[in-house]
Design goal:
single chain, alpha/beta, Rossmann fold, 13 helices, globular
Length: about 350
């Protein structure tokens, strides 16, 4: 049974001091080789988002890594969709605006995939649950790090139910090519009987992948990133996700996460921040109002267990929105019309970790 350590905000502790205890008791220090490079992986927030992990927490983890002899760098990868993070230059500018620079972090801030497609291919050896992925390209600078420390803000996500450690690994540590390969399972479906050719979707498409030809919608599959903007804005609900695509994307995520951690031979630690739990992910601006009271911080060597514990604590936390967007179990998944534990069950089958865990409150 996996161990998950829990810093409970309701105990009214000095959070930064308690974070040191969490780091020590959860054995995260044991994943860091002395004088080895440590990729501190997180989502530094889209331009305009305000609920990403606070820089002071990241700086605290960086300092703890350095205390045990590691050489940390703060990192993420560029996005598939257009926005404030789709090139290294734009991402670094957005990160700086959100408070992530070398001076504030005490470590270099690095975009791990450079041009977006630089990466090392890892073969998917024994796929399960119908996964069609053949390989995953892990961002080069993450792949070549000696250790990986994964900091995840747990929140809702429109396509995967929620985003936590598995999504941070499977989507956040890979190149654009592998992001696109995963998202290929949820290309929007058009109901022509509902489409009146109004062009709203054309106007909102960030990739200019849509056009109206002879009063019919045409999609350029090479340009489309399956970002959901057209689905969200269609006034006639003529566009939708393919049936089962949200679950299949989670299957892809789990396989991709497996490929990322495979190279590290156990030198991976996970810290989940269960606070500012918004309906949408940190890619969204705005991401919506927090739905529950802030819960705390969890740490584990097991990504499946730390995500499952996070979801269980969210289900038990007092709601601060009315009316309730959904009801437990799986509050976030139900809110987005999916079973968000698909990614965790798939990851368990792949040997990524265990759904069974023991929660240890510090």
């Amino acid at each position: 049974m996996a161990e998950v350590y829990f810093l409970d905000y309701s105990k009214n502790q000095n959070i930064l001091q308690a974070l040191q205890d969490l780091f020590a008791k959860s054995s995260l220090a044991g994943t860091i080789p002395r004088r080895g490079s440590v990729a501190v992986k997180l989502h530094m927030g889209e331009l305009g988002n305000i609920t990403y992990i606070r820089p002071i927490f990241v700086r605290s983890v960086v300092d703890l890594v350095k205390m045990v002899g590691g050489k940390p760098f703060v990192t993420d990868t560029t996005t598939l969709y257009a926005g404030g993070r789709n090139t290294p230059e734009r991402y670094l500018a957005t990160a700086a605006g959100n408070g992530f620079v070398e001076a504030s972090m005490g470590a270099p801030v690095v975009i791990a995939d450079d041009d977006g497609d630089e990466g090392v291919a890892v073969a998917i050896e024994s796929p399960v649950a119908g996964c069609q992925l053949k390989d995953i390209r892990v961002a080069t600078r993450i792949y070549h790090a000696d250790s990986l420390m994964v900091l995840s803000h747990v929140k809702g996500h429109g396509q995967t139910g929620f985003g936590g450690a598995i999504k941070n690994l499977g989507m956040g540590c890979v190149t654009k090519k592998s992001k696109r390969a995963q998202h290929a399972v949820n290309a929007p479906v058009l109901d022509e009987s509902l489409c009146d050719g109004c062009g709203t979707c054309v106007d909102v498409c960030p990739e200019h992948a849509l056009s109206i030809v002879d009063e019919k919608l045409v999609r350029d599959e090479e340009l489309c990133t399956n970002c959901s903007a057209c689905i969200d804005h269609c006034p006639n609900e003529a566009l939708s996700w393919p049936e089962g695509s949200k679950e299949q994307l989670q299957v892809c995520l789990a396989h991709s996460a497996w490929a990322v951690v495979k190279n590290f031979n156990g030198r991976v630690g996970f810290i989940n921040f269960v606070q500012d739990v918004t309906p949408q992910c940190d890619c969204a601006a705005p991401a919506g109002l927090p739905m529950i009271q802030d819960v705390g911080i969890l740490a584990s060597l097991d990504p499946i267990a730390v995500d499952k514990a996070s979801l269980d604590l969210i289900d038990r936390a007092p709601l601060v929105v009315s009316p309730a967007p959904a009801s437990p179990p799986d509050l976030l998944g139900r809110m987005h019309g999916t079973d968000s534990l698909v990614q965790l069950r798939t990851g368990e089958r792949l040997g990524l970790g265990s759904l069974e865990y023991r929660l240890i409150t510090i």
